[in-house]
Amino acid sequence: MTSPDPETLSHWYPVAMVGDLTSVTFQTMLLDRLIEISRDENNAFQALCGNRPLPVQERYGYLWTSLGEPVRDIPAIPEAAEPDRRLVCCGSIAVHSSGLRVVENFLDMAHFPFVHTNILGAEPETEVRRYQIETREDGAEIWATDCTFFQPQAALSASGGILTDYTYRVAAPFSTLLYKTCPASPERQDVIALFVQPVTATRSRAHPVMFLIDDSSSLGGLVEFQQFIFLQDRIILENQRPRLMPLDGKYEIPTMADRSSVAYRRWLKGKGVTYGALS
């Protein structure tokens, strides 16, 4: 049984969607999820927390908690406060994979034509154009900028293929965001976040959340579209070996298209993140 490292414990994680508060209270939902976590971990988290109360916050349609002493707040998303954006919570999806693998997959553009064929990519447009990597917030975040990729259907509201501009942001070891061209308002960007909750070192729950400028698509259609994309990713993630993500470059050889993955792994190693990583 592997215990979380101090860095992993010091961050916030979503544990449940807010849901219908007329019938289910915050406390009941949080308790149910923590019971599930403690069972999955053979009570490892319960042993870590003891009987002390855990902090609770509601943000972006989810309940969040931290099992340690949070060093930073839940990642700030200024776009979430814009009145014309739709908050689209896409549920919680179980993945038999390291949470670090889940974040890394989110950062990878090279798989678009082969995994999300005719949606996020298609042959022969397989080239990942060179992009930039930088750290921000005094090294607390990684950003990949100047990313572009041709996509046959970049969003549910898209009516045809476009060259999509991407900016990726790793806001915490298990929290990542994507800012991309908005088909409905090209001068602005849609925001898609993926908050990953590690349950064990090789099991996790993914919580996709979107902040969209789209007043025409149904809520059900938006959720279905995003879940369909993620479930395509889940097939790949659950077949990756090893399930733990190697942080040492000798285990998996990167290419130029993997610059964000290389930066992410080095950043994790520098922070001392070991939970979900291959030592």
The CATH level-2 architecture is identified as Alpha-Beta Complex
- Average pLDDT works out at 85
User: What is the chain-wise order of helices and strands?
Assistant: HEHHEEEEHHEEEEEEHEHE
**Count of domain modules:** 1
The N- and C-terminal alpha carbons lie at a distance of: 14 Å
Structural class: alpha+beta
Helix content: 25-40%
- Reading off the top of the CATH hierarchy, the class is best stated as Alpha Beta
Fold-level CATH name:
Naphthalene 1,2-dioxygenase Alpha Subunit, Chain A, domain 1
The amount of beta strand, in percent, is 25-35%
Q: Segments where pLDDT lies below 50 for 5+ residues?
A: 20-24, 38-47
How many separate helices? 7
Q: Provide the CATH superfamily.
A: Naphthalene 1,2-dioxygenase Alpha Subunit, Chain A, domain 1
Keywords: Oxidoreductase
Domain Vanillate O-demethylase oxygenase-like C-terminal catalytic: 100-269
Protein name: (2Fe-2S)-binding protein
GO molecular function, one term: oxidoreductase activity
